[in-house]
Design a protein that fits this description.
Layout (H helix, E strand, L loop, with lengths): L12 H13 L12 E5 L2 E4 L4 E4 L2 H4 L8 H13 L11 H13 L6 E6 L2 H16 L3 E5 L8 H6 L16 E4 L13 H7 L6 E6 L13 H14 L2 E5 L13 H5 L5 E4 L10 E6 H4 L15 H16 L2 H22 L3 E7 L2 E6 L10 H13 L2 E2 L1 E3 L5 E4 L7 H16 L2
Helix pairs in contact: 3-11, 4-11, 12-14, 13-14
Length: 430
């Protein structure tokens, strides 16, 4: 067992001063999970402005599969910055954009000829995937799922299945319909496509079905294989485009380059972002040429989409994932964590469920295992205790009672044990 240490003075004086400045100038709608300001990071650790160091089990919400400031990624960014920081691909093209598109198309688990679009954010990727599906089919309706999360823009907020805090005060886009995502632990999700298409929306008006192969903000719930088979059959029968939202699951996190490979999902289009570029803003859509080619020139793109710095970072990041065998490392990390979590489930009356794929794992906390009543207050207390002992964690779940683990895949065995010891202490101490 590693030594669990105590981080003193959280937030420290410098963080406190910055918190005061933040309060005066930053909109309160932008929430932050910890009261510390980070100054630097390396691998699986970050250091705040007061000199406190933390193990990072959040990875910037799943962005840092290759860790903070990986030397190959930072070198690629620095080298690119010397040559070209921006051009706008719609003005004049550059080779790194094409190289990223080639690489992603080669890796994507989509059958047949594929092409790729680069944008800046996951929400942009989802918006464009829906747009492509609508152009290709000549239809407007979209089917999404409960507990899903797809972004905070008008359309993606509509697609998102959780009200608080994402949809509060928002206006919503038309022609979005929802099915229950199977949530076995809570007995939710008897999916009836037939009823939806018979009673609510005609199948010949549906452009796309979109779902996360593993729910992200919804609590790391993998989609049942049978659901994915049924969705694929539904789409084939009615000429509907199937979109896999792999923004949080992609690039090694689940023990495969993409979760669709693990679950046997067969998408037509796939969105990606987060860990593709080692912390630089890059996202995109990859899909079958027969579908994406129907979007006319000028209908896709963006001023910063596929920025040269982000593309350089992406090429370096993907190289690191492949050369350092981080996909395989995710499976090793996941097996280690699952074994620990299983022991905690035996000891703690509050560990209701342990789930996920690869190194994308979560613990659902309950007040009582018999009633399965969610325990969001306990989840908050555990995160606060862990922070004081030097571990940054994220919550998740519709009921705010899930602790999710998104370790950098470069984390060492000793660092993983250290973080798990901190979490175990916070969890089992009541």
């Amino acid at each position: 067992m590693s030594v669990v240490r105590l981080v003193t003075d959280i937030p420290g004086p410098k963080s406190k001063a910055l918190l005061d400045r933040r309060k005066a100038t930053v909109m309160p709608g932008v929430a932050t999970g910890t009261p510390v300001f980070v100054a630097s990071g390396e691998g699986a650790r970050v250091t705040d402005v007061d000199g406190n160091t933390f193990l990072d089990f959040a990875s910037g919400i799943g962005v840092l599969a290759v860790g903070h400031a990986h030397p190959k990624v930072t070198a690629a960014i620095a080298e690119q910055a010397k040559a070209l920081t921006h051009m706008c691909f719609q003005v004049s093209a550059y080779d790194s954009y094409v190289a990223v598109c080639e690489k992603v198309a080669k890796l994507a688990p989509i059958k047949g000829d594929k092409k790729t679009l680069l944008v800046s954010t996951g929400a942009e990727a989802v918006e464009n995937a829906i747009k492509i599906a609508r152009v290709a089919t000549g239809r407007q309706a979209v089917i999404a799922f409960t507990h899903g999360y797809h972004g905070r823009t008008l359309l993606t907020m509509t697609l998102t299945g959780r009200v608080h805090p994402y949809k509060v005060g928002g206006a919503f886009a038309p022609e979005v319909y929802r099915l229950p995502f199977p949530y076995a632990y809570r007995g939710e999700g008897s999916v009836s496509f037939e009823a939806l298409l018979k009673n609510t929306v005609a199948p010949d008006t549906v452009a796309a079905v979109i779902l996360e192969p593993v729910l992200g903000e919804g609590g790391f719930i993998p989609a049942p294989v049978e659901l994915l088979k049924n969705v694929r059959a539904l789409c084939d029968k009615h000429g509907i485009v199937l979109i896999a939202d792999e923004i949080q699951t992609g690039f090694g996190r689940t023990g495969a380059m993409f979760a669709s490979e693990v679950l046997g999902m067969d998408p037509d289009l796939m969105t990606f972002a987060k860990s593709v570029a080692g912390g630089m803003p890059l996202a995109g859509v990859v899909g079958k040429s027969s579908i994406v080619d129907k979007a006319p020139p000028g209908s896709l793109g963006g001023t910063y989409a596929g920025n040269p710095l982000a593309c350089a970072a992406a090429l370096a990041t993907i190289d690191v994932i492949e050369s350092e065998k981080l996909v395989e490392r995710a499976s090793v990390l996941g097996n280690t964590m699952r074994a620990r979590f299983a022991r905690w489930a035996e000891k703690s009356p509050h560990v209701g469920d342990v789930r996920g794929l690869g190194a994308m794992l979560a613990i659902e906390l309950v007040k009582d295992k018999a009633t399965r009543e969610p325990a969001p207050e306990l989840a908050t207390r555990i995160k606060e205790r862990c922070l004081k002992k030097g571990l940054i964690l994220l919550g998740a779940g519709t009921y705010m009672n899930v602790i999710r683990i998104l370790v950098p895949l470069v984390i060492s065995a000793a660092e993983l044990d250290e973080g798990l010891d901190i979490l175990e202490s916070a969890l089992l101490d009541g």
